[in-house]
Amino acid sequence: MASFFNNCYLRLLFLRLNTYMGLLIKNIKGLVQVEDDPKLRVCGKEMSLIDTVSDAYLYLERDLISDFGPMRFLDSNPGKIDLLRDIVIDASGKFVFPSFCDSHTHLVYAGSREGEFTDKIRGLSYEEIARRGGGILNSAMKLNETSEDELFNQSMVRINEIISQGTGAVEIKSGYGLSPESELKMLRVIRRIRENAPLEVKATFLGAHAVPHEYSGRKHEYVNLVINEMIPVVASEQLADYIDVFCDEGFFTAEDTERILMAGIKYGLTAKIHANELAFSGGVQVAVKYNALSVDHLERSGDDEIEALKSSETMPTLLPGSALFLGLPDAPARKMIDAGLPLALASDYNPGSSPSGNMKLVMSLGCIKLKMLPEEVINAATINSAYAMGLSETHGSIARGKIANVFITKEMPSYEFLPYAFGSNMIETVILKGEVIK
Ligand code: NIG
Ligand code: FE
Fold this sequence. Notes:
This protein is α/β, with parallel strands linked by helices. It folds into 2 domains: 2-98 and 398-436, Urease, subunit C, domain 1 (Roll); 100-387, Alpha-Beta Barrel (TIM Barrel), CATH 3.20.20.140. It is 37% helix and 21% strand. It contains 18 helices and 16 strands. α9 (219-236) links the parallel β8 (200-208) and β9. Residues 106, 135-136, 139, 246, 274, 277, 322, 348, 350-353 line the site of N-(iminomethyl)-L-glutamic acid (NIG). Fe (iii) ion (FE) binds next to loops.
């Protein structure tokens, strides 16, 4: 019998005739971020701790994590694992991580903006480019000229890219439409991605991303349009889970943000906002006041912002890719963690300030630029970013009953090697909902 199943061809034939039951990953050098008692998020000092199992196995059944532990337990008590009917992957020398959760992206967009990249190299700031009609308004113009199908196709290229880079759950914002019709087009594309892609998708309505040309000098009227026309339709068509506002200098004020959040909350949308990227905007305090799930960017954060966050359930989320790309000061990550706060990391994948959705690189930037420890960036890019998109009960760690979203690395000496090797592609195998995708 054993030699029969050592024959690869016959084994595959057998598996095809008998629907396989589970997927066993064995001989794992390190199984990272395991939890016996799952937590919704980790804060302060806890962020520097992660549990790992050396010489481990991980057993997935259908789309769920079923069991894990040291190999010696598997050898002595194989339990329900049926080696005749399960797919088996040998991960000798390799590490297994929970898939990344990317809780902040704008990856549905049309075209690209590398012209502005060159403008920035020549010395223009993000705000100057925006004032000249570039930036978000440039993307809005391109998106208006692009059909829904084409927008979906362009976005799926980015989705497939981030899946191969280890992301298993992604939040995607609208905000390049800036009219009722185009915002709905973006949100429908996000819904199509959710229906077609193997990763988990959350949608955020960001009508207040910029004031469109037609409303120049009439921002109040545009805010009224967002509140009175866009939010009701978005909510009635159930196109969004969250509502966002770009609360920053040159965009929307804390007062605009309050009005929009109040309207969104009335329609059942939870707040998740952009704040304090360009200036001390008051956005952090507004986010906390409206019980936002997360407040993101935070490059300009002082003691008042940290104090406000300490008495809240809001997840501070840092986006070091956009700070790097725009040459912004780094958010005070160390000060925030030392004050006992949790932190999440996300990519901000967008054409203007972060044309990358590579969460492994984001972790490296967390270490290199924000002085976070490898354990802290792993927590920030998994369990805490899952929290920042309302998914930490089902995603963000290796725990029994959670969704079977994991990746297997190439051979590595330690888990710290993942953020350390900042330019290397270390992700070899991607498994989403229990299926091998790459
Ligand atoms: O998160 N800050 C606002 N929105 C995006 C940038 C969008 C763009 O430039 O297209 C961000 O950085
Ligand atoms: Fe953003």
